[in-house]
Amino acid sequence: MEQYTMPTKIFFGKAAIDILASLTFKKYYIICDPFMQKSHKVDTITEILKEKSATYEIFADVVPDPTIDVVTKGLEGIINFEPDAVIALGGGSAIDTAKAITNIYAKTVENKPPKLIAIPTTSGTGSEVTSFAVISDPTTKAKYPIIDNSLLPDLAILDAQFTLSVPASVTADTGMDVLTHTLEAYVSTNASDFTDACGEKAMRLVWDNLDKTVKNGSDETAREKMHNASCLAGIAFNGASLGICHSLAHAFGGQFHIPHGRANAMLLPHVIAYNAGLNEATEYCALARYEQAANLLGLKNGTPKATVHSLISRIKRMTKQFSIPQTINEYGIDPTEFIEAVPIMAEKALADNCTVTNPRQPALAD
Ligand code: NAD
């Protein structure tokens, strides 16, 4: 027997943010990064809160790839403020920070713990509907995916107006993260009809809209579709979990401080080839799943291997078009430094939670 649950209430579409006005909480702790304050995006939220005479405090110290220190600092703030709701406004970094802070704080309060409201401003991580939070330790250069159902936000507000200002390079990186989520969830050993339903829809939405949002960030329709795709992909991988593209991206991204979606985009073609055994005599079960995904995206090309080759070529073409580096040289990483870090990164990737559901179990040598 299996179970599929999605307890987060999702509000989406134009003016979805207006739902905030109807919430009855009195004290809001807003967690975001400094850009959300400087760009006045947070004002959209605080205006609504002021209008209903709610009080709020802003913690705007979130950094990309949030660290243990940031979580600790935010925790001090929440303990002093004692809110009845937390608002996470930002990309995966802000939402993951808020999840960690709220979760730890909830364990210390005797009465009702605060509710968590996630408002994503990138279309990428799907963190607003996942039980994952990725926290980094700069001293070990490690990124730790923490997984627990208690991390799931109570409410997710998908209002694409917040994504219109995302620069093209971040749009591309985060969009490739969505595509990676759909494909990893699809070939995961935990995939089910339920996770496939969300993953397949998300995959097609990315295929049809990512390019549009990178070329024209003001395309509101495409932005909305990508925002929905990001959330649907989050629902898919929350049920199915992920695979070694993410394990490797955590290790590689943590070591060289590479934006998460970019690290995934660079690794994805290699992971597909490895999982499907494309360049080997043995055929792995993931080959058929990648073929199915490629067929869904209209890439049918004769044999299963030829079809999966087409999928890889298309992904490479996309990343090239988006000016995402294809190799460590193109990224500007020193090759000697990279080679020295390989054993450390391989060990971290092998121990990463996401490796468990990869369709092909790798050895350290792989
Ligand atoms: P991010 O949150 O780090 O943001 C990237 C950059 O974009 C930041 O500089 C931010 O200020 C900027 N930005 C965000 N919204 C913007 C907007 N509307 N306009 C202009 N600039 C904007 O990036 P991300 O890719 O969303 O999140 C990455 C983090 O999420 C990583 O730590 C990754 O490991 C984690 N992650 C979490 C999950 C999960 O399920 N919890 C899944 C995948 C990744």
Automatic annotation (TrEMBL):
Q: InterPro entries in the record, alphabetically?
A: ADH_Fe/GldA, ADH_Fe_C, ADH_Fe_CS, Alcohol_dehydrogenase_Fe
Please provide the record's keywords in A-Z order.
Answer: Oxidoreductase
**SUPFAM superfamilies, alphabetized:** Dehydroquinate synthase-like
Record-annotated Alcohol dehydrogenase iron-type/glycerol dehydrogenase GldA domain positions? 7-159
Report the GO molecular function annotations.
oxidoreductase activity
Instruction: Give the Enzyme Commission number.
Output: 1.1.-.-
- Give residue ranges for domain Fe-containing alcohol dehydrogenase-like C-terminal: 171-366
Which superkingdom is the protein from? Bacteria
PROSITE patterns hit by this protein: ADH_IRON_1
**Mind telling me what this protein is named?**
1-propanol dehydrogenase PduQ
